[in-house]
Write a structure and sequence with these properties.
This protein is an alpha+beta fold. It is built from five helices and eight strands, in the order E-E-H-H-H-E-E-E-E-H-E-E-H. The chain has one domain (17-146): Aminohydrolase, N-terminal nucleophile (Ntn) domain (Glutamine Phosphoribosylpyrophosphate, subunit 1, domain 1, 4-Layer Sandwich). Helix content is 24%, strand content 27%.
């Protein structure tokens, strides 16, 4: 299992590889399309009551999960957040999004892919069946690979 992100980061210096996605801490890796905060690290750490190693605001989500906080409640109650992600947790791969970012999945050559922009896949893989990932729901991608 692996997760991949096609761009470096949305915050922090991309020359510092620790700021680039996917981010990994403990048993969680995450690749996110979105923004939690445009504030400097010291301000978003204080706002969200976390201590981050990187300068990438995506780490806030990992810290919340590692603290066993309900990430779905966090996403629902953080209105300014835009969030679409793939998360590797405890050797299972999930997709998760809020109501402000699209997220889609499809199978191709025995693998499951997750994309934010379905029209690109439709142009490249003509006839591919692409499905929406529901908002505010842990979407088990391993299960889709088995079916």
């Amino acid at each position: 299992m692996l997760i991949y992100h096609n761009r470096y980061d949305t915050s922090g210096d991309w020359h510092d590889m620790s700021n680039n996605q996917p981010l990994t801490f403990g048993n969680i890796s995450i690749a996110m399309n979105g923004v939690l905060s445009m504030k400097p690290k010291n301000e978003y750490e204080k706002e969200f009551n976390v201590n981050c190693i990187t300068e990438n605001d995506t780490e806030v989500f990992v810290r919340k999960m590692l603290n066993n906080e309900d990430i779905l409640d966090f996403l629902k109650n953080t209105e300014e957040c835009t969030f679409a992600s793939v998360i590797l947790k405890n050797n299972k791969v999930y997709a998760l999004r809020n109501n402000k970012r699209p997220l889609h999945w499809f199978k191709y050559n025995g693998a499951v892919y997750v994309v934010s922009t379905a029209d690109i896949v439709k142009r490249v893989l003509k006839g591919a069946d692409i499905y929406d990932i529901p908002k505010f729901e842990w979407f088990d991608l391993h299960e889709k690979l088995q079916n």
